[in-house]
Amino acid sequence: MEALLAIFLVKIPSIAGVGGLIAGLLTRKLSKALTIGAGLGVIDSIVLEMVRYGPGSPVGWVMAVLAAVLMAFVGWFIRLKIRERS
């Protein structure tokens, strides 16, 4: 369980997490933000596979997509709260 949490936390400052957060901040619709976040999670996994020589773990792919989607939701939520205040 700790290993899964560690993999998830490592994915947040990567392409998946940062890209998902930016997608959430820049898009108006939640569904579009989550779709872009999932796509960035896949791109993050592909880039990681290109850098690594051996085959990667499917858990890494899943955690990258989950981190990207979570960060996209967080970015969208922040955007929503900022728009409510103004």
Task: Report on this structure.
By secondary structure, this protein is mainly alpha-helical. The protein is built from four helices and no strands. The mean pLDDT is 89.
Concise structural overview:
The protein has helices at residues 2-11, 15-26, 30-51, 58-85. The protein is an all-alpha fold.
Secondary-structure element pattern, one letter each = HHHH
Radius of gyration: 14 Å
Major sheet size, sense and barrel closure: none
* Category from helices, strands and their pairing: mainly alpha
Distance between the termini: 42 Å
Runs in which pLDDT lies below 50 for 5 or more consecutive residues are none
Oligomer state equals single chain
Name the shape in a single word: elongated
- Total strands: the figure is 0
